[in-house]
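Record minuted for everyone:
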Amino acid sequence: MPYEPPTHTVERSLRATTGVKVVAGLDEVGRGAWAGPVTVCAAVTGLRRPPEGLTDSKLLTPKRREALAVQLESWVTAHALGHSSPQEIDELGMTAALRLAASRALEALPVRPEAVILDGKHDYLGDPWRVRTVIKGDQSCVVVAAASVLAKVRRDAMMAELGVGYEDFGFCDNAGYPSPVHRAALEALGPTPHHRLSWSYLDALPRWQHLKRVRSVPEAASLEAGGQLGFEF
């Protein structure tokens, strides 16, 4: 399906209206997974022409995504990744875990951004950062699209590494997201040390429900849309 290439429109608008010069784009991956960390990439690109074919990572084939990530690593001005572990997700909830991962990514950049373009409609980052949220920013904003591709490729590689010794779960193929193979392995073998134990997929696994962790302040169900035993990801 054809798609419009991302532009620097939002970044130019931020620069013109606020006077900022260093703008970072943020995107996350792993929010809806049953296993593994949630990962946020912070990228700074400036206003240069992006590599051909750059768009939201979900619109790219794995082969194209990996090739593009190699190009992006040398093309971006700077980028850094931040992660929140399954244990931190269980303890803090997804919104706070996203904030933690994003803060780690931003703090790891060699230059501190003066503004941040965040994919989506919810600002999970907040103070002290100046944030502009953009729905489908990973398709429309160059800097967010770059962060999207880099985050996805790195987390997929991490999940393949974490899957060594847990081959029945298919992490190298599903990256910890819901899938029939993943569900079958959970039913037969139970969660691994890489699984999120506060998520509702355990409600459908009577044999393993005793492992479920309950947070003292549960988040709204909408923040964990990937926690059900569905297969969309």
About this structure: The first strand starts at residue 23 and ends at 29. The CA atoms of residues 80 and 109 lie 6 Å apart. The first helix runs from residue 9 to 18. Residues 220-233 have pLDDT under 50 and may be disordered.
